[in-house]
Specification:
The structure holds two protein chains of two kinds.
Chain A lengths: L1 H31 L4 H24 L4 H10 L1 H27 L5 E4 L5 E4 L33 E4 L5 E3 L6 H9 L5 E5 L6 E3 L2 H11 L41 H16 L8 H5 L46 H9 L26 H14 L12 H4 L16 E6 L5 E6 L5 E6 L3 E6 L5 E6 L6 E6 L8 E5 L2 E5 L6 H12 L1 H12 L7 E3 L3 H5 L2 E6 L6 E4 L5 E5 L8 E5 L4 E3 L14 E4 L5 E5 L4 E5 L4 E6 L6 E6 L5 E6 L4 E5 L8 E3 L6 E6 L6 E6 L3 E8 L9 E9 L9 E6 L6 E5 L3 E5 L1
Antiparallel strand pairs in A: 1-2, 3-4, 5-6, 7-35, 8-9, 9-10, 10-11, 12-13, 13-14, 14-16, 15-16, 17-18, 18-19, 19-20, 21-22, 22-23, 23-24, 25-26, 26-27, 27-28, 29-30, 30-31, 31-32, 33-34, 34-35
Helix pairs in contact in A: 1-2, 1-4
Chain B lengths: L12 E7 L11 E5 L4 H12 L7 E5 L2 E2 L4 H8 L7 E7 L5 E7 L4 E7 L6 E6 L4 E5 L4 E4 L8 E8 L9 E7 L3 E7 L14 E6 L5 E7 L4 E6 L4 E5 L15 H9 L7 E3 L3 E3 L6 E6 L5 E6 L3 E6 L4 E7 L4 E7 L4 E6 L3 E5 L10 E5 L5 E6 L6 E6 L3 E6 L20 E4 L7 E7 L3 E6 L3 E6 L6 H6 L3
Parallel strand pairs in B: 1-5, 14-18
Antiparallel strand pairs in B: 1-2, 3-4, 3-5, 6-34, 7-8, 8-9, 9-10, 11-12, 12-13, 13-14, 15-16, 16-17, 17-19, 20-21, 21-22, 22-23, 24-25, 25-26, 26-27, 28-29, 29-30, 30-31, 32-33, 33-34
Classes of the chains: A alpha+beta, B mainly beta.
Chain lengths: ~775, ~475
């Protein structure tokens, strides 16, 4: 029962000690709050509360009255105040109690310690629903050490700002007694929050101990459990199973054998290379080229591009360079004076006595950085080489065998001409072939036998430059250009009826021309039509047309009434159109100057009234009906030698002296559709087959005739297909001239060529 | 019987079945066992032994359509045959390469040749590019020469009545050429060549064609002849002038006028027109020949076709289109085949019968230029000769050709049996003819008549010992 008595005592002392504390509070609060109105309420409430607290705490703490005494002794100034305060408070308390019990007046006026009246308001009952009396009393002083309060009766403030009084300290005897019979878990420490003795339970102590031993504090954790021997080294005498040993234990594994065989097979095939033999290892070089392969290529990513190698160091980068590499003073000075960017080398060779004396390289970081920048900023690109088989780029051409028939061998050689054979032409009936040559003769040959059946000595000094047959079914007329004369001949090899018909056709114009001349009189015609002399007439010549300059080429119109001649020497009247039925000649193209080019060849369009005039570089197409220039083709050749027009009229081939054969599609463009280079020397003549065969050919000064298969499709969308099928070789090149003219058989795939070697040839 | 042959009894033997298509050489015993090491010569000796012929005849042996050129053993090995099985062997009279007999030169290129085969009066009729025809004896003497009725080259000649010593009737022949006319000439043959051969003059001139006449074919049984021309027509004529219409002479051309002036005046001839003109071809008709049946004829043309004509109705019986222009044709009657030479350097074989399906063709390759003349062998049904512009005459054996069903496969080729070159070495061959009495005669650009002859019985012994 001693404790209870002590508590009572102490509670009294606590109340006493508390009162001055409140007064202290009153002083302190205004420093924090400048509010006057609230100022007065607080002490009262705090008083009330402290009283209640006092009641509660008194039960727990006992024997602190001695402490109070000690306090009062130590701080006399406070003690002086205390009695006054106590008196007031006591009175107040009684008043309060009475007023509270009486429930009459609301404000009491009390004279404060300073003599001023003090209003004490009745306590407001907040009527809390909840009971917070069990709320733990907490000290709010925070982190301030308790020593600071040693001189005070309180040890801090609770949440309401009331002082938490120091638990009454027991008397020495009590302490002694306490020490004699130490409570369980006594530590001799005071709880910081409550100021009471801090007792620890056995568990807590244990935890503290464990912490001190730096053990796991977890309860029940055994750091040293007994070992469970899952595996033992003791060999059991008895087997686990009494079953007999399975057979597979002592027969070789098939799976393994399979794998071994796989490896053996790989070794045999060379896919797997077994570990190298010792001897090979011994063959390793004793010294390695340290700079040879310092960074072996990573077999890593496919996009990995190894950095370009730096050049290996040279002598002057050595730490002991040979003396000749060391710069002398002058060089050193020059190097130092140079701008760093202009320096050839960014270092000076220096010599050191030993490798260990070599200082750190100052520029190392800088150089590394520059190198990294180089590698980073200059992206390295893996350049894929295009591995294209050149053969695959070529268009797939059908084999020549599929394009048969075409001429392939020389079937006959027409010998007889002295000098070059200038021109060759196959008769429209397909039985005869006419040639004209440098010896001034026109000869007609039987195709297969090569028999010369007729010969005309047209001139003794001039060469026959061109022979052509009138391309019609009736009327066997051969036009031959000899010097500045054009002979229209009916060779006497045909049926008499046909011969006389042809002659009539030719000579009918004489009368017409005579009439016309009488009418017109003066105007000078470009050509003079006349009867030949009797010798020639007997040989079959019916008409002679004399023009001013040498005629180089004759081309007939398809109807056979007109033919056109070219005399390149005559600048103004190079192209003449002659009309057989009226014996008249005219120059359709009035040419003012040479600037337009000297005509080389002319051709009539096979169906339209168009005239193709090939000059050295261009081909001009004149519309004869309207009398104007229709189109100009630009083959791009330097010097056009010959042209021919496809029988359907939409395509044109051009041969040039610069070895090129150009195929023009008139519908496509003024530029060539295809350029064929198959000749080693200039092309002399080109010719389309005018029958049913899609063939054309070119003859050249290299002595060959190239035969091409050139199919033209009716569909405008489809381009012509051109396949070279055969190079006909046989003509000899004499004084740099090869094959001068070519012509096709009108109905068969047979070719005739006229060579500078004095022969004409028949190819089938 | 067969044991008579054996010398070495250990040698491997094979049983062979001998057969022949020639009744003259049929042997009584047809199955013998012989050593497999035997070659052609051994087998030939065996057959001669079996025939008991007084003079040995060289034989060639065909096994499975091929000539035996090795020993039987080697043949069996190469053919993969067993010597256990009996072997069928066909034997034929051996062909020996015709040897060069001689050649006679003329003034100009010779375009055509026809041989007369009458007994004792073997003559060579040739047409020349100078417009004349000549009759030459085998010794090279010129019996007769025609007057220049033809203003241009003669391209075709043929005998109508072949000369003979027995009959007193004059012989006659036809010539045709580039001047578009056919002339009939009569010729009195005498054994002794006239010391001064008066030129012959033509009796009848046949006029129809408008262009070169390329070929003539006369059929004795109907007395009719055919002419093929470059004007795409074929004309049918008769030697009986009374059957033909009389036509007027064509107006002379300037060419002929000029020529006439330089030569002597020629006697006038009868001018006759044709019985019929056939125009089935669309290109120059290059050659025509009568079939075995004289009312039928085959013509070939540049339009690549072989046309069978019925001469009675002048209708086309059959048209075969080949792939190349054709230049020459001949028949192989016993085999029912037509051989046609083309401008594409080969010879094709056709069966003209409708029942053949029309497509049985073989291709004979070997010439290097146009094949312009064909002549069948007088001795064998399987042989024929071809003259080509490449300057060679080749002799072909049909048996060496494997027939194929389709014309397109030109793989079925065969080399020729023999090759005869021009003795002069140059120039084209324009015509060949082949009869038993004269041999193989070829004419050409070298202006020469070249005679080659296959060796007959007389020289067999000598030849046999050489191993052929």
């Amino acid at each position: 029962m001693a404790p209870s008595a002590s508590t009572r005592k102490r509670s009294r002392a606590a109340v006493e000690a508390e009162k001055p504390a409140t007064s202290d509070d009153e002083f302190e609060i205004p420093e924090i709050n400048d509010d006057d109105s609230s100022e007065d309420e607080d002490p009262s409430t705090s008083d009330e509360q402290s009283e209640d607290d006092e009641e509660l705490s008194s039960e727990d703490e006992e024997g602190d009255e001695d402490d109070e005494d000690i306090h009062s002794d130590e701080v006399p100034s406070e003690d002086e105040r205390l009695p006054k305060a106590n008196g007031h408070v006591n009175g107040d308390a009684s008043d309060e109690q009475s007023s509270a019990e009486g429930l009459d007046d609301d404000v009491k006026i009390v004279t404060g310690a300073d003599g001023n009246p003090r209003y004490i308001y009745p306590e407001i009952d907040p009527v809390y629903d909840s009971d917070d009396t069990d709320a733990e009393e907490t000290n709010t002083i925070g982190n301030i050490p308790l020593e600071y309060y040693e001189n005070y009766p309180h040890i801090g403030y609770d949440i309401n700002g009331k002082r938490i009084m120091r638990p009454a300290a027991g008397k020495a005897l009590d302490t002694l007694l306490d020490s004699i019979e130490l409570p369980k878990g006594w530590t001799g420490l005071l709880d910081k929050n409550s100021g009471a003795a801090l007792n620890l339970t056995a568990e807590e102590l244990e935890i503290v101990k464990k912490l001190q031993r730096s053990e796991i504090t977890d309860d029940g954790y055994d750091p040293y459990p007994d070992m469970v021997e899952y595996f033992t080294n003791t060999v059991e005498q008895m087997p686990l199973s009494s079953a007999p040993e399975p057979k597979r234990r002592f027969i070789p594994s098939k799976h393994e054998q399979k794998r071994v065989m796989k490896i053996v097979k790989g070794i045999r095939e060379g896919r797997i290379i077994p570990r190298k033999l010792q001897s090979e290892e011994a063959d390793r070089p004793e010294f390695y080229d340290a700079w040879a392969d310092d960074a072996p290529p990573k077999p890593g990513h496919i996009m990995n591009i190894p950095a370009p190698k730096l050049p290996p160091p040279t002598y002057d980068e050595s730490y002991i360079p040979p003396p000749e590499y060391l710069p002398d003073e002058k060089e050193r000075k020059a190097w130092e004076e140079q701008d760093p960017e202009d320096r050839e080398k960014n270092y000076l060779p220096r010599t050191h006595k030993a490798l260990r004396l070599v200082p750190g390289y100052k520029e190392s970081i800088n150089e590394r950085f520059q190198r990294s920048l180089d590698l980073y900023l200059a992206p390295r690109v893996r350049r894929n080489k295009l591995n294209i088989d050149p053969a695959s780029l070529l268009p797939t051409l059908p084999p020549p065998e599929e394009l048969k028939p075409f001429p392939s061998t020389c079937a006959a050689v027409y010998r007889g001409h002295e000098g070059r054979v200038r021109s060759v032409a196959a008769d429209p009936t397909g039985l005869w072939v006419a040639t004209g040559g440098d010896d001034g003769t026109v000869r007609v040959w039987e195709i297969f036998t090569g028999r010369q059946v007729w010969k005309l000595k047209a001139s003794s000094d001039e060469a026959v430059d061109s022979v052509t047959w009138r391309p019609t079914a009736e009327g066997r007329i051969l036009a031959a250009a000899c010097g500045n004369e054009i002979l229209l001949v009916v060779p006497p090899i045909f049926d008499p009826e046909e011969e006389s018909k042809s002659k009539e056709l030719l000579s009918a114009g004489f009368g017409y021309a005579a009439n016309k001349q009488q009418q017109q009189g003066k105007k000078e015609a470009p050509g003079t039509w006349s009867k030949p002399d009797s010798d020639l007439e007997e040989d079959g010549v019916v008409v002679t047309i004399t023009v001013r300059k040498t005629v180089k080429y004759i081309a007939w119109h398809r109807r056979g009434d007109y033919f056109v001649t070219v005399s390149p020497d005559d600048v103004r009247r190079a192209v003449c159109i002659h009309r057989v039925s009226t014996h008249s000649s005219q120059t359709p193209i009035k040419q003012k100057s040479v600037t337009k080019g000297i005509p080389q060849r002319v051709q009539f369009h096979p169906s339209k009234p168009l005239l193709f005039v090939a000059t050295k570089r261009y081909i001009r197409i004149y519309d004869l009906a309207r009398g104007e220039l229709d189109k100009t083709l630009k083959p791009g050749a330097r010097w056009i030698s010959s042209i021919d027009i496809h029988p359907q009229g939409d395509n044109l081939i051009v041969g040039s002296y610069d070895k090129r054969l150009l195929w023009h599609d008139l519908d496509l463009s003024t530029r060539p559709y295809r350029t064929l280079r198959y000749h080693d020397k200039g092309i002399r003549a080109v010719a389309f087959h005018h029958g049913n065969f899609p063939l054309f050919c070119s003859s050249s000064d290299d002595g060959t005739v190239q035969v091409f298969h050139g199919r033209v499709y009716g569909d405008l969308m489809e381009n012509a297909s051109i396949v070279p099928v055969k190079a006909l070789k046989g003509h000899k090149v004499t004084s740099h001239l090869g094959v001068l003219d070519v012509d096709w058989h009108p109905k068969q795939p047979w070719l005739f060529s006229a060579g500078a070697d004095g022969t004409a040839r028949f190819w089938n | 019987m067969a044991d008579a042959m054996d010398v070495d009894s250990d040698a491997p033997r094979i049983q062979i079945n001998l057969s022949t298509r020639d009744a003259a050489f049929a042997v009584p015993l047809q199955t013998v066992r012989v050593q497999t090491s035997l070659r052609r010569f051994g087998l030939s000796t065996l057959v001669n032994h079996l025939l008991e012929s007084p003079k040995p005849i060289p034989f060639d042996f065909l096994i499975d359509g091929q000539y035996l050129r090795t020993s039987i053993d080697e043949y069996l090995t190469s053919a993969g045959l067993s010597s256990e099985k009996p072997l069928d062997v066909e034997y034929v009279r051996a062909q020996v390469p015709p040897t060069y007999i001689g050649s006679f030169e003329q003034d100009d290129w010779i375009s055509s040749v026809h041989l007369s085969s009458s007994a004792g009066a073997a003559t060579i009729l040739t047409g020349s590019f100078d417009g004349t025809a000549q009759i030459t004896s085998l010794s090279g003497q010129v019996f007769a020469k025609t007057m220049p009725y033809h203003t241009q080259s003669v391209k075709a000649v043929t005998w109508v009545d072949q000369p003979s010593l027995t009959s007193s009737d004059p012989a006659s022949f036809l010539t045709a050429g580039m001047d578009r006319t056919i002339n009939l000439w009569s010729y009195q043959h005498s054994d002794e060549p006239p010391s001064s051969a008066a030129p012959l003059s033509a009796t009848t001139t046949y006029i129809s064609h408008k262009s070169t006449i390329n070929s003539l074919s006369y059929s004795p049984s109907t007395s009719q002849f055919l002419s093929a021309s470059s004007d795409n027509t074929i004309a049918l004529w008769s030697t009986d002038s009374s059957l033909l219409p009389t036509v007027s002479a064509p107006q002379p051309t300037s060419f002929s006028r000029k020529r006439r002036r330089t030569t002597q005046k020629l006697p006038n001839t009868e001018k006759k027109g044709p019985l019929a003109v056939l125009t089935p071809h669309t290109a120059p008709v290059s050659q025509i020949t009568h079939a075995t049946d004289p009312t039928a004829a085959y013509s070939v043309s540049w339009d690549k076709s072989i046309i069978t004509h019925d001469l009675v109705t002048a209708q086309v019986v059959d048209t075969r289109v080949t792939q190349h222009p054709l230049l020459s044709v001949t028949t192989l009657p016993s085999l029912n085949l037509i051989a046609a030479g083309s401008a594409a350097r080969h010879i094709t074989l056709h069966d003209p019968r409708a029942s053949s399906g029309g497509q049985q063709t073989a291709v004979l390759r070997g010439h290097t230029n146009a094949v312009v003349s064909l002549a069948r062998s007088p001795e064998s049904d399987y042989l024929f000769a071809s003259g080509s512009h490449d300057g060679c005459v080749r002799i072909w054996d049909v048996r060496r050709v494997a027939f194929s069903a389709d014309t397109d496969s030109e793989d079925k080729t065969s080399g020729s049996l023999f090759l005869i070159k021009r003795e002069s070495g140059v120039g084209k061959v324009f015509g060949v003819d082949w009869i038993r009495d004269v041999g193989l005669v070829s004419v050409g650009e070298d202006k020469k008549i070249q005679i080659n002859r296959g060796e007959l019985m007389a020289d067999v012994t000598v030849l046999d010992q050489t191993g052929r």
